Amino acid sequence: MQLTISDKPVWALALFIGGLLNLAVWTDRLASVYASASWRTAWLGGALELLLPVAVTAALLWLAALLGRRALQITGMLALVISVLCAYFMVRFDVVIGYGVVKAVLTTDHAMSGEVVGGFLAVWVLLLAGVPAWWFLRMTRQRSASAGLPTLSRPAALLRLVVALLVLVALLAGLRQVARQLEGAAGGMHASFTGVMAHSYLPMNWLAGVAMVVGTEVTAWRSEASLVHPAIRHRYLDTDLPQDLQVVVVIGESARWDHFGVLGHDRPTTPRLQAEQDQGHLAAFRATACDTSTKLSLACMFVRAGGVMPGDGLHQRDEILEQPVFAVLRTLGFSIDLFAMQGEAGYYQRVRPDFYKLREVIAAEAGAGVPDLDGLLVPQVARALEQRGAGRRAIVLHTKGSHYLYSRRYPAEQARWQPVCDMEHRFCSRDELLNAYDNSILYTDRVLGELFDTLRTKRALVLFTSDHGESIGENSHFHATPRAIAPPEQLRVPLLLWASPVAAADPVLGPGVRRAVARAQVLREGSGADVTHHHLFSTLLGCAGVRSPDGGLEAGRDLCAP
Q1: Which secondary-structure segment (H or E) carries 200?
Q2: Which residues of 82-174 form beta strands (DSSP E)?
């Protein structure tokens, strides 16, 4: 069966996209990656790197050709235009095209995205894509025989696809050898050589990004579709729930309870929290995180213990069976606002806020030159209280907290303990790391104090915990060790419950808060190891006055319960 096309337009477009559009990236990598390599390694690696995207493009086009001439034309045009657009941002803005960029393009407010599209981009696309697109369509539109070109059959196109794939395999094998030579010269590489290449060259970078976005979206959709709403399994009663209650959930980052002065640290890192505790408004617990990395902890920390099927902590992830506590709050009439200084957009969507702002918007509103520190979240809360109307409200704040580089998580005036580790690429002693880390905890204390002041005249509860802890040693700063083998400090997190004076005096809320304060004191005097992230669901609802007659609040996990 004839395809009525020839080899010429396919290979020409493959050379244009995989070769010409990648010249800027290729020369940059020659000057950087191969700068200290031998001339043989540099020439071999450079040649293989330039041929690889050509082979990928050719394989893509021949695969489309098997479906017919029209499929080839559509695929070729899409590959050309998308690659030219990506090349513009790669060359002008030094953007690395990958999952994050593709995800942002597909999900970001397109009114904002349009701000970077101007006349220069239009000229770029017209010059680089216009003539090749016209030529490719012309060459594939007319019958090859009438143009004096040989006519291909589908078996011939399949043969060319096989050849392109075999060349691709050979190129990858050669690049692995080059990678081993470069690793030996550099004393070990920290990133996958082929992985970095895949995100450097067109069209591999945007193809990989699209594949990852589609994969994660399908996985998330299948997971979300299977999650059970807790209110389907249990009844949650709001008879005693105040109509004007404000619940604020603050998610910390990498904060360890053993570095909180209010929980026993020998440095006064939490003077504001200590003052609130002394007044009987704060219950401070030493808790254990449900996992050791942000994404894994966010998935499990606000779900009922009965709604999580734990994995082995080494090979298998926990299986989440139910929706988080925010789903129940919504059924109880709470509006939900979310303000974040991090970028866990997938998780924020699972919270399903009525209104939210991410760090870029918050920083832009603060103005140029204002550091994007956690303190910017407090005015957002104040504005939400003023502008978002009356009624029950839950506000979720996601902080940068004590994420490395610790010294960049607080203003200069908070640098109480010196010297600190303040450069990412130098050796840091353990004392320098600990000083910077404790300064970041001191700033967290300040931000929480400012938040309490904002809510002091409201009927408000604040629940603070960190997603996970942090290991800090000589020049080391990390978390995310598989839970089953993680050192204990990566699972140590504070869990704090604060009630405003109005809430503490409330006949419904006050008794529960007092019980939580008393329970925290007893646990601190003992081992303090009986509280976990799985207390969050029942504690958040129970302390707010929610009741469940059929076990929706798990026994022993409501820290405000009698």
Answers
A1: none
A2: none
